[in-house]
Amino acid sequence: MFHRRISRAAAPAAALAAVLALGACGSDGGTEDAGPAGGGGATTAESLRIGIMSEEGNLTPHTYATGFPGLNLTMLSYDSLMQVDEHGQPQPWLAETVEGSADGLTYTVGLADGVSWHDGEPLTAEDVAFSVGYYQAGPPGRFATALGNVTQAVAQDGSTVVLTLAAPDPSFELRTLADVPILPEHVWSAVADPDVAPFDESTNVGSGPYRLVESEPGVSYSFEANPEYFRGEPKVDELVVVQFADEAGATAALRSGEIDTMMRSISPEQIEVLRGTGTLDVVEAPEYTTTLLVFNTAVPPFDQAEFRRAVGLAVDRQRLVDDVFLGAAVVGNAGWVHPDSPWYDDSVETVHDPDEAAGLLDGLGLTDSDDDGVRELDGAPLQFELLVASNNALRMRLAELIGEQLGEVGIGVTVSSVEMQTLDDAVWPGYDVAQGRNYELAMWGWSSASQADIGQMASLVATDPVLGNLNITGYSDPDTDALAAQLDTELDPAAREGIADQLQQRIAEETPFVSLLHPNGAYGYNPSVFGDWVPITGTGPMTKLSFIPDEGQP
Questions:
Q1: Distance between CA atoms of 95 and 218, rounded to whole angstroms?
Q2: Is residue 371 in a domain?
Q3: Which stretches of 277-408 are assigned E, i.e. beta strand?
Q4: Is 413 a member of any domain?
Q5: What are the pLDDT digits (tens) for 165-176?
Q6: How many CB atoms lie within 10 A of CB 343?
Q7: Disulfide check for 447: which of 68, 239, 272, 424 has CB 3.0–4.6 Å away?
Q8: Sign of CA dihedral 478, 484, 488, 490
């Protein structure tokens, strides 16, 4: 039976899993503390300067550009009903209580007292009900999808809202309640098209620990602490986020003291370089981010599982980890799930076997008739373009090495370096899989959220664009669809684990994509500015939890 009632009082007390000291020369420092996880550093700071390497647009829940760092930056200003704790488990946040019915179709949410928007207006159940309807009626996107199973949101009174679901969703707390930002009705009810809403003093109203006060997309963002935040006054007064063209520029700025940290792991070769400066250090931790090789399965012969499996067998994942990441990554699993995840099925085999790959290609009639080293398809060379973002040096190196490995079995690859937006438009136009795709091969990455919620595995492979909203390969298979639908609705934990195992096996057999590796998080810092960070399992420290005082942790 599914019947869950949790409250803030019942949630486990937060404990620091690790402490990162973060900063740079020239910044205003704060109070010092020797943290138990080593290093230590300031527990408060006047200003923290953070480097990013991607254009994140207007930071609203409707217009942020990427899951990381864009959504992480956006959620500095907004809150969800629940919040994942340091262990990655959803806990009450804006909600004081969350109660699920026995059939999994109704959630009753009681809001915390005393929560206000940045403009001083109270946050109420009406705002929650409005947010559900506004996302659902608006443009397609992450939050509209997360709320797609909600058929009704009713404010019973000022602090209680009842959500009704069309079907049971075992991931509802993690996928929806702990993810969807709540919007102020008095602000967004006047905005007809949220995709074109400008940044100004009206649209930058949230409930989060910070308010975005300056926004110049492509250049910088400035956040000001919310001293009335219901979880306690933030530990850092000001966050200044500066955009750089690439990792090299941001790393140089970190070394020179222009910034205090970066919202991206540093390159493996930089780890010892930064540690050798005498002022900077690096904290490393496994993360659930995933780097993939993706196919357009509408393009022959990627429409054949045997060919896709041959590609997977030809790729030497361990060599990618060793040669490109210098060992600072976890080898990807043919069944998708991170090996550290509690959902990982260790019976799934991840194999590098170029001879078997060649045999599969021979069996498909893809032979090299002219002995030029490249097989032929319908008389033409078996040659494909591999797209990769130009601002990601590591993925560029991965792409080149993968091209060599595929070349060894007779598959020709031309690596094309393109702007990130060009890549997005080709692989995931409009961030809507229903719009199709226009590529052959691409280097891609999914943020840690795709692994933290096992239900997202269904989103990667389901044919239905509603359930399969992350199916950027266009993969379609009836058996996979059946397992994906079961994974998405099964409430019994043991039964769901069995379904997850079956789906991992199916993904390994069908190879709708090649999960290459999971980079370890490696964050450079100087312990003179701020060191009281709170990492989340599989996600790392670059979230708002790091800026919320201990007594306000979930």
A1: 35
A2: yes
A3: 281-285, 290-295, 329-331, 376-377, 380-381, 383-389
A4: yes
A5: 999 999 999 999
A6: 18
A7: 68
A8: positive
